[in-house]
Amino acid sequence: MADKFDVIVIGAGPGGYVAAIRAAQMGLKTACVEKWIGKDGKVAHGGTCLNVGCIPSKALLEASHKFVEAKHDFDDMGIQAGDVQMDVKKMIARKDKIVKNLTGGIAGLFKANGVTAIEGTAKVTAKDKVEVTDLDGKASTYEASNIVIAAGSVPVEIPPTPLTDDLIVDSTGALEFQETPKRLGVIGAGVIGLELGSVWNRLGSEVTVLEALDSFLPMVDTAIAKETQKLLKKQGLDIKLNARVTGSEVKGKEVVVKYEDSEGEKEITFDKLIVCVGRRPYTKGVVADGLGIELDQRGFIHVDDQCRTSVPGVYAIGDCVRGPMLAHKASEEGMMVADIIAGHKAQMNYDAIPSVIYTFPEVAWVGMTEQDAKAAGIKVKTGSFPFAASGRAMANNATEGQAKVIADAETDRVLGMHIVGQHAGEMIAQGVIALEFGSSAEDLALTCYAHPTMSEAVHEAALAVEGHAIHMANRKKR
């Protein structure tokens, strides 16, 4: 007789493990299946985010930023650091240690909350059955009243640049370089490409980013995107837009990349090449044929606003369904689904999901861009404030960037917030809360902010919506 659970979650990434823990907290007998093999040869929880994504990339971004600060910025503050050097192997080892601690922590959370961890590859074979093939190839069947598919995603590979060990790599391989490449190519000027390009640029690589689109960060407000591009170029990233990669050739320990731009066909040679052109849902083989679960042409599982699939009792969350491929989005969906299964009313506001690019300065946004609102026929009013006018930013030696608030011209309701600046990823939470509670720009303007803080730029941007910013020239007078 098969083991029976109230809930079986497939995948222990930021969507899956959160869903499993939440379900167990609700008193449901819960299991979570994971097949990811860590560097130690054992099953590791945490999915892409903890193993080869969000966390390890931030460890490298933080280390490389501190290196740049010590090498170039400390002197301005009166700190004599001498000849600063980076030990790349030690930096990578620290990253691996952080990953191991966090993935092991999830195993501890499972145990503390009573979640049964099952190792192996899962397939939904019926609306209430999951077949798991363990690491030795043995298949077992488990029954569940509810199934949550949280299988995640994998990097997209493109025909012109087939991956080659330690030479042409995806985002995972880019986290494992044991030395700084002299010439580094990055295909894709999205979040991952800019972050990884920044890491190795700070450590001395000559970084060229090839982006097929003719616009930079089109999902970000135009004013913020333009400023971000200018700042990254100043740091040394050579970002080539409208550059479509057509082929590559490995020559010894070099990669020759062919691409086309407005001037025609071109070639460029790199010592390493990172392919960061997006991710695709990992859904192939997760669901048995004929079960009735609908997938679109790109492999995403079709779900409703509460993540129900077309089969009753089967849910899907995270990167394998519509919406932004973000860890926090997956986690929130996991909690929503667990609450629904437990009989509670739950809903997620997909209009209030923040996004962050962890370059320096960081870029963060939530809600509409100004161009989005105008395309939708919504009249807006905006307010911006530069960090160059912030006392705390001056003290922090971080005066680059600005905060921008977008509000409905008629109702004053906050429609979006966009920030490029130090700690933008932390400050954007104010915009998320404003959207979640339906706040007006005036609500933010009337809020008392601590001084001196970087967040005061948000306060001033909200004041600037009506032309009433205190620390810069006003556009309007009463």
From TrEMBL:
Localization per Swiss-Prot or TrEMBL: Cytoplasm
Signal sequence annotation: none
Enzyme class: oxidoreductase
GO MF annotations, alphabetized: dihydrolipoyl dehydrogenase (NADH) activity; flavin adenine dinucleotide binding
Disulfide cysteine pairs (residue numbers): 49-54
KW Zinc-finger (keyword) present: no
UniProt-annotated binding residues for NAD(+): 188-195, 211, 278
Residue numbers annotated as active site: 451 (proton acceptor)
Swiss-Prot/TrEMBL catalytic activity: N(6)-[(R)-dihydrolipoyl]-L-lysyl-[protein] + NAD(+) = N(6)-[(R)-lipoyl]-L-lysyl-[protein] + NADH + H(+)
Chain ranges of the Pyridine nucleotide-disulphide oxidoreductase dimerisation domain: 353-462
InterPro entries in alphabetical order: Class-I_Pyr_Nuc-Dis_Oxidored (IPR050151), FAD/NAD-bd_sf (IPR036188), FAD/NAD-binding_dom (IPR023753), FAD/NAD-linked_Rdtase_dimer_sf (IPR016156), Lipoamide_DH (IPR006258), Pyr_nuc-diS_OxRdtase (IPR001100), Pyr_nucl-diS_OxRdtase_dimer (IPR004099), Pyr_OxRdtase_I_AS (IPR012999)
Binding sites annotated in the UniProt record for FAD: 58, 319, 325-328
Ranges where the FAD/NAD(P)-binding domain occurs: 5-334
SUPFAM superfamilies named among the record's database cross-references: FAD/NAD(P)-binding domain, FAD/NAD-linked reductases, dimerisation (C-terminal) domain
Biological processes, Gene Ontology terms: 2-oxoglutarate metabolic process
Keyword hit for Ribonucleoprotein: no
Cofactor field: FAD
Source superkingdom: Bacteria
Transmembrane domains' residue ranges: none
Gene Ontology cellular component annotations, sorted alphabetically: cytoplasm
Cofactor comment: Binds 1 FAD per subunit.
Record EC number: 1.8.1.4
Family according to the record: Belongs to the class-I pyridine nucleotide-disulfide oxidoreductase family.
Protein name: Dihydrolipoyl dehydrogenase
